Amino acid sequence: MEQYGNVEITNRKTGDKCLLNFKPCGLFGKEFHVVEGYIQDKSKKKLCALYGKWTECLYSVDLAIFVAYQKKDKKNTEEKNSKQVSASEESDEMPVPESQSVFVIPGSVLLWRIAPQPPNSAQMYNFTSFAMVLNEVDKEMESMLPKTD
């Protein structure tokens, strides 16, 4: 399931807003799970940029740095696409999909990163530590619960 669309989060005390755009994408597209956005004050002045993947991590970076990176990335993507078109004319091979990790823009601050799976996660239906604790039977409750639970 892929999230896409816009989300607006408002700080009711200060009037500041976080505007996030969950990018739509096909299964193997470049923008799979990508989220980008801005923090703006009540006068709608953009204070900083946010970017990352909602399944992995979220970073904050100065707005000017983010805008410069976007321009550079767009130029590189256009050059790469023009090279791929000429290369695909010569070959019938399927292109290898790009890496699914986030490129960290220099000067960024990590805001959030997904916690690693616990070591025994595979034996426990790939549950997170939180989900495993929810299913843990407390020793005091064990005598009171039916054997089926």
From TrEMBL:
This is Uncharacterized protein. Residues 73-98 are annotated as: Disordered. Gene3D superfamilies: 2.40.160.120. It comes from the Eukaryota. SUPFAM superfamilies: Oxysterol-binding protein-like (SSF144000). One of its GO terms (cellular component) is perinuclear endoplasmic reticulum. Pfam families: Oxysterol_BP. One of its GO terms (molecular function) is cholesterol binding.
